[in-house]
Amino acid sequence: MKRTPPRLFRPLAAATAATAVLGLLTALPSSVDLATEPAASAANTATVFYYTKTKNWAAYNLHYAPDGGSWTTVPGVRMEAACTDWVKKTVSLGAADGLQATFTNGSGTWDNNAGKNYDLGTGDITVKDGVVAHSDPCAGGGDPDPTPTPGDGNKATVYYSTETLGWTTANIHYQPAGGAWTAVPGAGMQPACTGWWKHEIDLGAATTLKAAFNNGNGVWDNNRGADYALGTGRSTVKNNTVTGNADDPCAGEAPDTKAPSVPAQVTAKADGVSVVLTWEPSTDDKGVAKYQVTRTGGTRGTLVTDVGSTVFSDANLEEKTTYTYTVKALDTAGNVSAASAAAPATTGERPPAPAPGKPLGTDPRKDPIYFVLTARFNDGDSSNNRGGNQHTKSGNAANNDPMFRGDFKGLVNKLDYIKGLGFSAVWITPVVLNRSDYDYHGYHGYDFYKVDARLESAGASYQDLINAAHAKGMKIYQDVVYNHSSRWGAKDLFTPTVYGVRDSQWSWFYDEPNSAFEYDGLTVEPKSGKSYYTGDLWSTAEPSGNTCVDWGKPTQYTSPEGYRIYNCQWPSPTSGMFPKALYHNCWIGNWEGEDSRSCWLHDDLADFNTENPTVQNYLIGAYDKYIDMGVDGFRVDTAVHIPRTTWNRRFLPAIQERVTQQHGAEAAKNFFVFGEVAAFVNDKWNRGSVNHSAQFYTWKERREYNADDAKAALEMYDYEQQLGTGNQPTSTNAVLQGNSYHTPDHSKFSGMNIIDMRMHMNFGDARNAFHNGKDSDDSTNDATYNVVYVDSHDYGPNKSSERYTGGTDAWAENMSLMWTFRGIPTLYYGSEIEFQKGKKIDCGPSCPLATTGRAYYGDHLQGDVRASEFGKVESATGEIATTLSQPLVQHVQRLSQIRRAIPALQMGQYSTEGITGDMAFKRRYTNGTTDSFALVTITDGATYTGIPNGTYTDAVTGDTRTVTDGKLTVTAPGKGNIRVYVLDGPGRIGSAGTYLN
Question: Cα dihedral sign for 232, 236, 242, 244?
């Protein structure tokens, strides 16, 4: 799970501009020359400014309709010159509070926002390269500057740098000492030179002022909540640093009039009804800011799109149609290169909707697991990348690294890499539509019935991923969350209505409501220009049945920006916003207490009342959908925060029933459910609490409780706590009887397996992990199903907040243990090359993802790879070939080959009886005609006594021993190395490497 506490209210600089959407240039009729404005009484007005430098048309017309009104006659009303690179038109809207608009040169070329039209409000509005903002780019701002004291007053000239911000316009919101603040968003600044904006202010008698800056569309820089203190004369503000009496930053700088070089090697490749366009980077003396891709062909007209990289993905095109693409490069001064050579591509047929899949249905212990954060693994489609409102604050923008970067298409493209490592199961982070300030990880679910659009692409839906994996013999384990939703509730169950007044202080924070728009995480809402739109969540009207006390009344508190905080302005468990029937209304006070199952973990994780039938039905129905799609299992997030009675009564039986109904009894038997019961201690029982220990969840209930689920949860909690750790069920399901395998007894199995938290916490050293793991096995229903990993997206060993950094030799030793001892080996993406070792795993938006353990991995996967079978690569080119050549990669490949060839290492019970040696054990699996017996030692030597006589062959070296006296001695193979002597074994498996030799 993900636990990163945000601030109560985001600082002004926290939000960020959304991805630009450039208009579709459609050849609309132009036979009518007369422009007629809609009749409207004088009331609201809008002054629309349109940027001309990119288009360079001979004339500009505004074709518009007030909200609820009629459109002007084509081609609209003529716009007039405003200032350099801008034209404008002021129109009357009557009672309407906005307008729909398009722009045209009057000769058949249009910009209508990719067919969606521009959705504009009132006041001063700018439209620049598809980005809508609210200011006057020609100075003066949306509201006049405060009236200065008559006569000659003091002057302040303010220069503001947007070099690292990427803003297309800038406003200064200020207050002369003793005077009033400008109205939001303040006064429009003028472009001064590359990266700098300028505004001159008459202060009257004042000698100082306070100031903040914004892009006119909700993105602010207010000096981290402190505002900027400026004086008279010339001041510069750059990267939160004020310089008084400063030199002119634009003095002596020659205007940048040189355009970037023409993009070269433009290549378009069609795949079904999608086209991927690539080209070589252009050069420029001041730096390339972006590229402009123009597409022609088909029946939809010409499309012009701005992109920030040298890859453009164009999806959902017409079938069997030829499209032609050209690319221009733009620099920060707005200079535009000539168009590239045209690159054509002809689409094929639209891929049919994928049929529902069917789980592979085999024993999950056969399948090593590769765990990926889907959004951080590999980017197959840049068009679904999204940075969210923390894109700039987090530092991700500076790295061109949006939080939602990887996707299903990228994962499908690299399934052969994962298969080539030897993994036959992929654990992916939650797929449901998320809603949060920083939700790329998937644990802030909002619509549990919908797959997050930021992960899907045409031809690479979630169903496509499942089917593609199954075609390669690989399973998909979906991370699921039953415990909580996002702070914004769960769509179609309950979404809190939050008080939000769009006044002079908060209009940047609350997006203007748009009833025609539905949040999907991907689509940009036209009025706000955001994909992370929240206009549907805020209201000034108190909702019917509201239980939040003093709705909308101001409190004595202020935000970090100094803005007044109102009651019911932020979702929380104690605000009364959430109905008690559906959500718990408290904070956890004791993580090992009863309240851990009935209170909120964090203010981004609204805690479901999972003992309520309505909530249960909502969640069961949601996850039935993914069972029907054919996923092979569920990794259950925060399982410990739901009572075992609720799992055993409701959710686990529902899973079994649905899989049986849809896919049959054998599939249900092997549908793998493994829960996260996060016990971050090194003892067998979590601080003595059986209810908070992982192995507790592998058992059925042993008595009847109240029919009411909430009462039953309390009864069970008290009963089991009183019995304590000394009176819990025990099992020998993982342990041999002498040298013999025995049929395990699963009659008391709950249906939930577990992540081996105790081994995880002790994996700072393999020996500790081995001995601690064994110590808990008698209290686990069947530890051969335990999911075993060293580190994850949350923690490293010993609750470290960093990715494992024990060294390559230690990693090899840990892997050798995981691949041969009981349990299912699991690797967090990139550990095969010690990716991001020692880096903090998660610091939320306080640092760039590129510096964390959740960094983007795709740079290491560039190129092509083909796996011939599990653990074997047929061919690899590019950077991925370098990745595959790393010593730990070769180690895990051979370990996977050995494990796959020896059933005892997959499903066998184990014993250390009659064995001397630190990490040494024997394993056996017997079923029908299969009888697999293996002796394993890791790093150190070992002696095995009382073993069956016969011929043993080492799977690592091929060494053969004949045992006649029940005894076999093995010399120490060395750090990370192993010996696996198999009775009547297959011989040497694979080739020698750095550690297996």
Answer: negative
Query: pLDDT tens for residues 342-392?
Result: 999 999 988 777 788 999 999 999 999 999 999 999 999 988 999 998 998
Sign of CA dihedral 733, 734, 740, 741: positive
CB crowding 579-616: b at 16 or more within 10 Å, else e:
beebbbbeebeebbebbbbbbbbbebbbbbbbbbeebb
Asked if residues 707 and 613 have their Cβ atoms less than 8 Å apart, the reply is no
Question: Which distant-in-sequence residues (6+ apart) come within 8 Å of 879 by Cβ?
Answer: 859, 860, 861, 862, 863
Cβ atoms of residues 377 and 858 within 8 Å: yes
Under 8 Å between Cβ of 956 and 979: yes
Amino acid residing at 534: T
863 CB neighbour count, 10 Å cutoff: 15
Quote the CA–CA distance of 645 and 212 in Å, as a whole number: 54
* Torsion angle in degrees (nearest 10) through CA of 795, 797, 802, 808: -130
Task: Give whole-number Cα distances, 161 to 14, 207, 237, 399, 555, in Å.
Answer: 17, 23, 6, 19, 36
Q: What is the DSSP letter of 639?
A: G
Angle between helices 808-820 and 887-901 in degrees, nearest 10: 10
Identify the band that residue 525 occupies on the pLDDT scale cut at 50, 70 and 90.
confident
For residue 185, cis peptide bond before it (omega within 30 degrees of 0): yes
Structure tokens at 180: 């009033």
What Å distances lie between residue 480 and 372, 651, 673, 974, CA to CA?
A: 14, 12, 10, 40
Helix (H) or strand (E) holding 889, with range, is helix 887-901
Q: 871, 474 in Cβ contact below 8 A?
A: no
Integer Cα distance of 347 and 271 in angstroms: 7
Render the burial of 397-417: b for 16+ CB within 10 Å, e for the rest: beeebbbbbbbbbbbbbbbbb
Q: Hey, how many other C-beta atoms are within 10 angstroms of the C-beta on 701? A: 17
Reported as a single tens digit per residue, the pLDDT across 787-807 is 999 999 999 999 999 999 999
Q: Is the dihedral of CA 37, 38, 41, 42 positive or negative?
A: negative
Q: 87: which strand partners?
A: 50, 81
User: What would the 3-class secondary structure string for 55-73 be?
Assistant: CCCCCCEEEEEECCCCCCC
Chain centroid, CA 809 distance in Å: 32
pTM: 0.76
d(CA 849, CA 577): 33
Q: Which residues, other chains included, contact 886 with Cβ-Cβ below 8 Å and sequence gap of 6+?
A: 832, 833
- Nearest 5°: the CA angle 510, 515, 520 is 75
Among 385, 371, 345, residue whose Cα is nearest residue 478: 371
CA angle 512–516–519, rounded 5-degree value? 75
**What is the pLDDT, as a whole number, of residue 338?**
94
Residue type for position 862: Q
Of the candidates 626, 613, 600, 582, which has an alpha carbon nearest to the alpha carbon of residue 491? 582
Contacts of the segment 958-966: beta carbons below 8 A, 24+ positions apart: 958/987, 958/988
The beta strand positions in 23-163, using DSSP E, are 24-25, 44-51, 61-66, 77-78, 80-83, 86-94, 99-104, 110-111, 118-120, 123-128, 131-133, 154-161
- Structural tokens at position 722: 């009183």
Looking at every residue in the chain, the average pLDDT score rounds to 90
- By residue count, the chain amounts to 997
**Cβ-based neighbours of 543, under 8 Å, separated by 6 or more:** 497
CA–CA dist 642, 691 (Å, integer): 10
CA-derived radius of gyration, the chain: 32
> Distance (Å, rounded) from C-alpha 577 to C-alpha 486?
14
Other beta carbons within 10 angstroms of residue 296's beta carbon come to 16
C-alpha angle 601-603-608 in degrees, rounded to nearest 5: 60
One-letter identity of residue 938: I
